[in-house]
Amino acid sequence: MRYAHSRFRFLGLCAVLIACAATGSVLSSTYAQQARTTQDGVFSPAQATRGAALYEERCAACHGEKLEGSIGPELAGAGFLGVWGGGQPLYGLFDKVAKTMPADSPGALSPTQVADIVAYMLQANQFRAGTVDLGTTEAALRQVAVVSASQPPAGAAAPAAGSALSFPATGNLNQVMRGILFPSSNVLFDVQTQDPSSRPKPGAHAEAATTSSRYGDVYEPWAIVDAAAISLAEVGPLLMTPGRRCENGKPVPVDQANWQQWVRELGEAGRAAYKASQTRNAEMVSEATNQVSDSCANCHRVYRDVATAAQRCTPR
């Protein structure tokens, strides 16, 4: 099955950068205003008990009876705190559950039910209970920071000047695949059936009604192929980021020799595709896509194409 390739949108990128700058300012202000943390007893025992019953009914099938993770990620322990901890507002977790869970009927839970389940999750992560139920309003939940006993307090010293920067994982492996590897590899595979030289030149859809069609041809077709190849060549560090999780909550197997080998092979395939793209010869790029396909298939065969989603990312 072939999918239409993605293209970068300059104006959209500008808007995103502006939005990110504004968001960073808002987050800084939000953290400064947070008066409580999850160490302060922000839920009641009775609420956690109600949440446990709801969890068993609506969540355990995907996340495990003990919140250990199964088809979905773990909801207790280091993996959970690595994603939701570190001083983030508790509202982020509440909003995630409210809008996307349960997976088979997202949005079906009432705000009170969501708060009860979140309370149970906090209890399972060894946060102590208080005397009052966790609230359901955005304003109140933004005043609570998710901070575990093992995490540094807010305002801890930043890395010394000149030290290596650290960029924690934001998306899970599946999201990285869908956002980068899937569209980029398909741009390359499309060359097998359509020579980029024959595609419309930039600006062909300048009067189109939608953003996707209006900016779909901002760059020359061959430049898009170049960018797709480079994204594969450069994606290695993202696939080796410590702490990244698979969609089922298991750690990405960055310590496994075969994973490391296939990440290297993917980078080599991307560089080969880029070299071929520089010739502006569609046949040479098509030939290079065999290397891309092989590098993907080797990894998928072991870590993705398994009996159940719960077994993905499991070293064998």
Structural account:
The protein is an all-alpha fold and 316 residues long. It has two domains: 36-146, Cytochrome Bc1 Complex, Chain D, domain 2; 168-311, Four Helix Bundle (Hemerythrin (Met), subunit A) (Up-down Bundle), CATH 1.20.120. Helix content is 51%, strand content 2%. The protein contains 13 helices and three strands; from the N terminus they run αβαααβαααβαααααα. Strands 1-3-2 form a three-stranded mixed sheet. It is elongated. The protein starts with 9 loop residues before the first helix and ends in a 12-residue tail after the last helix.
Describe the protein's topology.
Elements: H1 10-33, E1 36-37, H2 45-58, H3 60-63, H4 78-84, E2 88-89, H5 90-100, H6 111-124, H7 138-141, E3 144-146, H8 173-190, H9 211-214, H10 221-234, H11 236-239, H12 257-277, H13 282-304
Parallel strand pairs: 1-3
Antiparallel strand pairs: 2-3
Helix pairs in contact: 2-6, 5-6, 8-10, 10-12, 12-13
Quaternary arrangement of the chains shown?
A: single chain
Query: What is the N-to-C order of secondary-structure elements (H for helix, E for strand)?
Result: HEHHHEHHHEHHHHHH
For the termini, the CA-CA separation is: 29 Å
Helix- and strand-based class?
Answer: mainly alpha
What portion of residues belong to β-strands?
under 5%
Q: What is the share of helical residues?
A: 40-55%
CATH class annotation of the largest domain: Mainly Alpha
Total number of domains: 2
**Low-confidence parts, pLDDT < 50 over ≥5 residues?**
1-32, 153-159
- Architecture (CATH level 2) name of the largest domain: Up-down Bundle
Count the strands?
A: 3
Overall pLDDT score: 82
CATH fold group of the largest domain = Four Helix Bundle (Hemerythrin (Met), subunit A)
Give the strand order, joined by hyphens, for the main sheet.
1-3-2
